[in-house]
Amino acid sequence: MGEIVFVGLGLYDDKGISLQGIREVKTADKAFIELYTSLMPAFSIERFEKNIGKKLHAVSRKVLEEENGKIILEAAKKGKAVFLVPGDPLIATTHIALRIQAKKLGIPTRLVHGASILSAAIGLSGLHSYKFGKSVTIPFPEETCSETPYNVIVENKKAGLHTLCLLDIKADEKRYLTICEGLTALLKIESKRNETVVSKDSLAVGIARAGSPFPTVKADFVEKLLDYDFGEPPHTIVFPSGLHFMEAEALIVLAHAPENLREMME
Fold it and tell me: How much is the mean pLDDT over the chain?
């Protein structure tokens, strides 16, 4: 019996993996990779394979979700299987299911963590991490009319907590929800609910390409963010709740929020 080692790749390119992660891949009997749960804009499988001296086996959503990762489990029964995942390896529930299945089969598992959008986006925003509530994903509007993202923002704001909104992706179709599209979807719900939770006067923070050398971070009112050019994906949105004075200062200095944010704090 071998093992499965889940290894986080980080957020942006093939240099985001840890030294421990590289060591695990180099000593693997078989290495698998998935790139559908998140977008890593500058990641190159070919370059990564050249650097580690090993062939990677790409797995699809179907392999992991419909076939329960059978190919990885079978490899782990014979030797050391490494599974490379964007970000931190167990943030996606799909991968937790694979680890549970391995455990049931008596296959040992280990984790090598990587940078996650959950911590990176919060850090880039300048907001205090302990003041964040439940995070939520905003789906493509044509696929669902779910008001869950709006409801989560409502719940968090009632508790005085910030909300991290991840934006839906379909990597196999090269489709990535943008900040503008995410805000527009929320404004559409607001027009029905009329609770003044996500209006054009709401403060929000748009973050693009977290983990890259030059991410874009912009805090402003929704009306302004709708027209702001955030550049290439992936994109993320943060909705702040009540601000500590240091958080307001961070948004002004680090995220280019309007200077009158200080006055709003007074």
Answer: 94
Four-residue CA torsion sign, 241, 141, 95, 42? negative
Q: How many CA atoms lie within 13 A of 237 on its CB side?
A: 31
- Distance between CA atoms of 165 and 37, rounded to whole angstroms? 15
Note whether 141 and 234 are same-domain residues.
yes
- Does residue 234 contact residue 211 with C-beta atoms inside 8 Å? no
b/e code 224-252 from CB counts within 10 Å (16+ = b): ebbeeebeebbbbbbbbbebeeebbbbbb
Choosing from 67, 88, 112, the residue where a domain stops is 112
Q: Which residue did the predictor score with more confidence, 91 or 99? A: 99
Query: What is the Cα–Cα distance from 95 to 34, expressed in whole angstroms?
Result: 10
Which residue, chain included where needed, has tokens 């009319």?
A: 145
- Provide the 3-class DSSP secondary structure of residue 92: coil
The pLDDT of residue 265 is 65
List Cβ neighbours of 58 (8 Å cut-off, separation of 6 or more). Answer: 32, 33, 34, 35, 45
Number of domains in the chain: 2
